[in-house]
């Protein structure tokens, strides 16, 4: 799912769509109670009864075909109302008469310049949050999410502590006392939101005259405290626009700095035209405090694909439009109050679901998301897209058992672990790595019950992970990702908890020099007496190529500083040397990968020499000394061949999928 390239068509689309018709879009039934929570206020709009709110998704089978939209402002309801040209310096001045034909002058402060008056500005994303003051708010704060409001005025310390800029609202008549009590706690200049859908009987439900009265009594005084004042947010039904026109014509001298809008319908282009209409009429920046891809007109609800497209198109447009201050998608809540549950941003755990995570970061990546065309999707199914089939479990256990017993007889179990990991990974059979771990830790295939101790299992898992990481140099990232994902699926939680979490390979100004020294030392150890000649030759292919190789050798292939681990060792989360492989075993990694890869004999030969030269390394273990002997090196190559032949000879497919 992805946004269309809308911005290139914006000018033409805006002119065309303004002339189009709109369907009446009912309000969302939200109202703050005395504790800042919200609850459903209505169930009927335009003669249509809505189903009770539920945490279940609606049945698509009960959705009706969409009907033709009606005009946003019908010819029978438009007042003879002509706004004057805008001024960028004067506050909003309403006409001296209440006649709808009078003009007005609005203050046009772009969203990007509102910081000049002290109101905090930043990325435009926001949350319409009906869930109270909860510590989970920190899970919703990203660099894109700036604003938050609750349909009320209660301060939310958790929101402020998480870094949100909270916007208080006077919802309507019933909240005036609470608003008067709370508004003084907002000492930092902010946007103060006026009444919620005053044109709707189930919402704040007031005439423009009464709204003007409340404005002067409760909203206008906040201007003296440095706040920006936001005009009421009407519903997106046609009467909402005319209500707003009348309110502006009667709010003579009101200091209106911005206007809030709500929008519920299924077309991104109509959404954009709707916002443009309000901006063209009132010449004020806009906060979109409720919107969703929702059909309130007896038509079919938006599918997830349509919601994604709607969200990404509208977000891209709002992010690029300087007079849009903020936007709040509906909704970050469990009860969607009769709005399409496919629009829900919150999972059952109170944290962002997939759509919620996308909404949090759209400003950073939404416009870069693309959608695969059917033709491209089809192409991706061709040319053997899946990993190769694995042998049956019985066959794989037979291969592992026979090679392990052979390694035991030679006291080369660590070498066996490393070469088996790298061989299976190179063969691109990810499930085999999961079975390999179960085999080593004596884990029951059916129940997952492990007989090995936690410390023993942690050590083996860490050695497999490290071997796989080093394989990246020889066979690339994709196969390593798939195999590590398969391994990660079968490691039980107790073992996972004891595996190292912090990277030891992050480059810093303090360690980069030692990493390069370590890489050059390994290079020399592997390729002497031809190290310098080969260095210059590879550098001649591309000036950055040899630098990249040396950095990889130092950061990944060479042992990390400290001690090294073996097959029979144990390890824990406190083990600083967890998973560290010796210089000898690094050469075993290279041989296993390149032998299983096939058709790269020059590189394989180089690393065979590298293993033989490891016999000169200091402080070799008994196992490493044997592995670097002629006999040991031959055994490594032959054992890789045995595993390759055994895995490839079994023709039965193993249909276990790997979750990344």
UniProtKB/TrEMBL annotation:
Alphabetized Pfam families for the sequence: Glyco_hydro_cc
Keyword Lipid biosynthesis among UniProt keywords: no
Range of residues in the leader sequence: 1-29
Any single biological process term in GO: fungal-type cell wall polysaccharide metabolic process
Secreted as UniProt keyword: no
Source organism, top-level taxon: Eukaryota
Record field: compositional bias (Basic residues): 55-65
Region (Disordered): 42-120
TM segment ranges: none
InterPro entries in UniProt: AhpD-like, ASL1, Asl1_glyco_hydro_catalytic, GH
Assigned keywords, A-Z: Signal
UniProt feature, compositional bias: Low complexity: 69-117
Asl1-like glycosyl hydrolase catalytic domain mapped to chain residues: 126-357
GO cellular component: fungal-type cell wall
PANTHER family: ALKALI-SENSITIVE LINKAGE PROTEIN 1
Protein's name in the database: Asl1-like glycosyl hydrolase catalytic domain-containing protein
Organism annotation: Armillaria ostoyae (Armillaria root rot fungus)
């Amino acid at each position: 799912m992805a946004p269309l390239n809308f911005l290139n068509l914006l000018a033409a689309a805006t002119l065309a769509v303004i002339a189009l018709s709109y369907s009446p879009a009912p309000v969302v039934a939200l109202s703050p109670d005395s504790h800042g929570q919200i609850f459903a206020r209505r169930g009927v709009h335009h003669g249509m009864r809505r189903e009770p709110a539920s945490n279940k998704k609606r049945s698509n089978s009960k959705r009706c075909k969409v009907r033709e939209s009606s005009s946003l402002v019908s010819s029978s309801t438009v007042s003879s109302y002509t706004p004057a040209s805008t001024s960028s310096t004067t506050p909003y001045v309403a006409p001296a008469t209440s006649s709808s034909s009078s003009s007005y002058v609005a203050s046009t402060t772009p969203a990007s310049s509102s910081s000049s008056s002290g109101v905090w500005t930043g990325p435009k994303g926001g949350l319409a949050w009906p869930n109270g003051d909860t510590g989970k708010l920190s899970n919703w704060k990203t660099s894109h999410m700036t604003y938050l409001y609750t349909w009320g005025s209660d301060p939310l310390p958790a929101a402020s502590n998480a870094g949100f800029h909270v916007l208080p609202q006077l919802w309507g008549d019933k909240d005036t006392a609470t608003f008067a009590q709370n508004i003084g706690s907002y000492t930092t200049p902010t946007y103060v939101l006026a009444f919620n859908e005053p044109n709707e009987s189930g919402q704040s439900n007031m005439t423009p005259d009464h709204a003007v009265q409340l404005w002067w009594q409760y909203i206008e005084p906040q201007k003296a405290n440095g706040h920006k004042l936001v005009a009421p947010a009407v519903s997106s039904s046609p009467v909402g626009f005319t209500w707003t026109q009348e309110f502006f014509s009667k709010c003579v001298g009101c200091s209106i700095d911005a206007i809030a809008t709500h929008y519920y319908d299924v077309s991104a282009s109509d959404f954009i035209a709707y916002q443009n209409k309000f901006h063209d009429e009132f010449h004020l920046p806009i906060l979109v405090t409720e919107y969703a891809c929702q059909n309130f007109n007896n038509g079919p609800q938006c599918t997830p694909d349509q919601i994604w497209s709607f969200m990404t198109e509208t977000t891209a447009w709002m992010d690029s439009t300087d007079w849009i201050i903020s936007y709040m998608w509906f909704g970050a809540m469990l009860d969607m109050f009769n709005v399409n549950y496919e629009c829900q941003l919150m999972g059952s755990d109170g944290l962002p679901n997939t759509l919620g995570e996308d909404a949090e970061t759209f400003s950073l990546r939404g416009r870069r998301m693309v959608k695969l065309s059917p033709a491209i999707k089809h192409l991706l199914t061709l040319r053997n897209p899946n990993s190769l089939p694995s042998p049956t479990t019985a066959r794989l256990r037979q291969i592992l058992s026979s090679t392990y017993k052979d390694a035991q007889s030679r006291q080369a179990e660590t070498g066996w672990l490393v070469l088996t990991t790298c061989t299976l990974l190179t063969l691109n059979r990810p499930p085999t790595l999961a079975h390999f771990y179960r085999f080593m830790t004596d884990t029951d295939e059916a129940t997952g019950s492990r007989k090995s101790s936690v410390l023993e299992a942690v050590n083996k898992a860490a050695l497999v992970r490290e071997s796989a990481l080093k394989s990246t140099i020889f066979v690339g990232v994709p196969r390593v990702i798939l195999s590590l994902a398969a391994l990660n699926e079968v490691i039980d939680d107790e073992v996972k908890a004891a595996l190292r979490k912090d990277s030891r390979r992050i480059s810093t100004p303090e360690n980069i020099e030692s990493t390069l020294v370590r890489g050059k030392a390994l290079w020399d150890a592997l390729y002497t007496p031809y190290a310098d000649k080969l260095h210059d030759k590879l550098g001649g292919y591309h000036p950055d190529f040899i630098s990249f190789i040396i950095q990889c050798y130092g950061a990944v292939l060479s042992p990390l500083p400290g001690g090294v681990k073996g097959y029979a060792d144990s390890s824990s989360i406190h083990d600083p040397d967890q998973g560290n492989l010796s210089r000898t075993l690094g050469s075993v990694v290279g041989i296993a990968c390149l032998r299983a890869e096939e058709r790269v004999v020059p590189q394989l030969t180089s690393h065979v020499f590298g293993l033989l030269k490891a016999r000169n390394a200091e402080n070799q273990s008994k196992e490493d000394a044997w592995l670097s002997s002629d006999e040991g090196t031959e055994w490594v190559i032959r054992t890789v061949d045995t595993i390759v032949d055994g895995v490839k000879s079994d023709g039965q497919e193993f249909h276990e999928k790997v979750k990344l």
